[in-house]
Design brief:
Radius of gyration: 17 Å
Order of helices and strands: EEHEHEEEHEEEEH
Helix content: 25-40%
Structural class: alpha/beta
Oligomer: single chain
Number of helices: 4
Strand content: 25-35%
Bound molecules: inosinic acid, magnesium ion
Largest sheet: 7 strands, mixed
Number of strands: 10
Length: 209
């Protein structure tokens, strides 16, 4: 079973005033729940675990856009650092796929997949809530018969809506709240925020479509 850093349900988070947050989002957020530095520290360790487990396998790293782009880029940077500073290294190529299923803060039950032209052995993802997006993607990937598929997700949400699906590598397990920042969006907003934060109810109304 994948180990992860658990953020408790009663986690108070950090006051926004203690961190740098874009002015245009100051009124929209309740708390910083995972500061950017902690995301980076955890990602560095995930990179080490992945390189250890991959042996000399060639990795096709598949980024699940848009929400996974920050995590993917940072995870690959750490893997590259290990590759250039260790005796052992794993060859890497990259590919990108786009999935969309959310409107406002709810899943639409309809997972759209666009792009991606290669097989995958490592899939980098932002967040798993019900697991539906990832399960759809995995069944699609299995059609190209890859040797091995490993899923890395920065976040997994503790929610009764979960299908039970668990990724192979997990950064953090988080409470059942809608999170934004570090490329996670609410109707496309908040991707330009470094920390992972909790959105307040006024903001859900303000950016609702
Ligand atoms: P699932 O299919 O229910 O596992 O949902 C996964 C997808 O829903 C993610 O790739 C995100 O795009 C979106 N999502 C789920 N929870 C959140 C959240 O708290 N903030 C932002 N996006 C989320
Ligand atoms: Mg989204």
């Amino acid at each position: 079973m994948a180990s992860y850093l658990q953020i408790a349900d009663d986690e108070k988070g950090y006051n926004l005033d203690l961190f740098c947050v874009p002015r245009h989002y100051e009124k929209d957020l309740d708390k910083v729940i995972i500061p950017h530095g902690l995301i980076m520290d955890r990602t560095e360790r995930l990179a080490r675990d992945i390189v250890r487990d991959m042996g000399a396998h060639h990795i096709v790293a598949l980024c699940v856009l848009k929400g996974g782009y920050k995590f993917f880029a940072d995870l690959l940077d750490y893997i590259k650092m290990l590759n250039q500073n260790n005796d052992k290294s794993v060859p890497l190529t990259v590919d990108f796929i786009r999935v969309k299923s959310y409107c406002n803060d709810k899943s639409t039950n309809n997972v759209k997949v666009i792009g991606g032209d290669d097989l995958s052995s490592l899939s980098g993802k932002d967040i798993v809530e019900t697991g539906r997006t990832m399960q759809t993607l995995l069944s699609l990937l299995s059609e190209s018969r890859p040797k091995m598929v490993k899923v890395v997700s920065l976040l997994v949400k503790r929610t009764p809506r979960s299908s039970g699906y668990r990724p192979d590598y997990i950064g953090f397990e988080v409470p059942d709240a809608f999170l934004v920042g570090y490329a996670l969006d609410y109707n496309e907003y908040f991707r330009d925020l470094s920390h992972i934060c909790i959105l307040n109810d006024e903001a859900k109304e303000k950016y609702r479509v």
